[in-house]
TrEMBL record:
GO MF, one example: aminoacyl-tRNA deacylase activity
Origin species: Streptomyces harbinensis
UniProt protein name: Cys-tRNA(Pro) deacylase, prolyl-tRNA editing enzyme YbaK/EbsC
Domain YbaK/aminoacyl-tRNA synthetase-associated: 48-166
Gene3D superfamilies: YbaK/aminoacyl-tRNA synthetase-associated domain (3.90.960.10)
InterPro entries for this protein: YbaK/aa-tRNA-synt-asso_dom_sf, YbaK/aa-tRNA-synth-assoc-dom
Length: 187
C-alpha cells in the first residue's frame, strides 16, 4: 500500500511488523483502543543513516517537514522527586521545556532527560522514541498542532522505520494531554 504522506513505496499496518518494533510498541499496538482502527497505524521502513531531518526530507518527501513530529523524553523535578514524561511537537517547532512542559508537570525545573535514562526507561532506541508504548503512568504532552494534522509521521521505537497515523490518534494515546503552544516555532 502507498503511504498517505511522504514518498514511501511500502506502508504496512504496524501491527503486522512485529519483528521491526520494540516490545513496548508492539504491546501497545496489540492493546490498541484509539479512535482509529489499529490497521490505520502504518509502518514505513526507512534507512537509519538518513535520519537527519534535512536528509530524511530530501529522501522521503518534502511534505514531511510539515507532517512529522518528534517525541522527546523530559524530566521534571520538584522537591527531590523526578517525573519522566514525553512530549510530542511538530518537527518544525522546538519544545518549550522551561515553560509549557514545566507548568504541565507541576515541576520546579524541567529538562531533556539524559539519553541513557530515556532509552532505558522507554525500552526504545535513541532517535526513534515514539509516544506509542511509553511506560504506564508517564504523562504524555502532545502539541495541539500535531494532533490536528490529518496524518503525522513519528518514530517507531527504533531508528529504522517510522509510524504514520492520523493526528487525532496522538491525542487519544494513554496518559495524553493535548497542549496549545507546547512547541514554539524554530527561529
Amino acid at each position: 500500500m502507498r503511504a498517505p504522506i511522504g514518498d514511501f513505496d511500502d506502508a504496512r499496518p504496524a501491527i503486522e511488523c512485529p519483528d521491526l518494533l520494540p516490545a513496548p510498541v508492539l504491546a501497545a499496538l496489540r492493546a490498541w483502543a484509539g479512535p482509529v482502527p489499529v490497521e490505520q497505524v502504518l509502518f514505513v521502513d526507512t534507512d537509519p543513516e538518513k535520519a537527519d531531518t534535512a536528509v530524511f526530507v530530501a529522501t522521503y518527501g518534502a511534505d514531511l517537514d510539515r507532517t512529522s513530529a518528534n517525541c522527546v523524553v523530559v524530566a521534571g523535578k520538584r522537591g527531590g522527586e523526578t517525573t519522566l514524561a514525553a512530549a510530542v511537537v511538530p518537527a518544525t517547532a522546538r519544545l518549550d521545556v522551561n515553560g509549557a512542559v514545566r507548568r504541565h508537570l507541576g515541576a520546579r525545573k524541567a529538562s531533556f532527560a539524559p539519553m541513557d535514562t530515556a532509552v532505558e526507561s522507554s525500552g526504545m532506541e535513541y532517535g526513534g522514541i515514539t509516544p506509542i508504548g511509553l511506560p504506564a503512568g508517564w504523562p504524555l504532552l502532545v502539541d495541539a498542532a500535531a494532533a490536528d494534522l490529518p496524518w503525522v509521521l513519528i518514530g517507531s521505537g527504533n531508528r529504522r522505520g517510522k509510524i504514520i497515523l492520523p493526528g487525532k490518534a496522538l491525542g487519544a494515546l494513554p496518559g495524553t494531554t493535548v497542549v496549545e503552544g507546547l512547541g514554539v516555532p524554530r527561529s
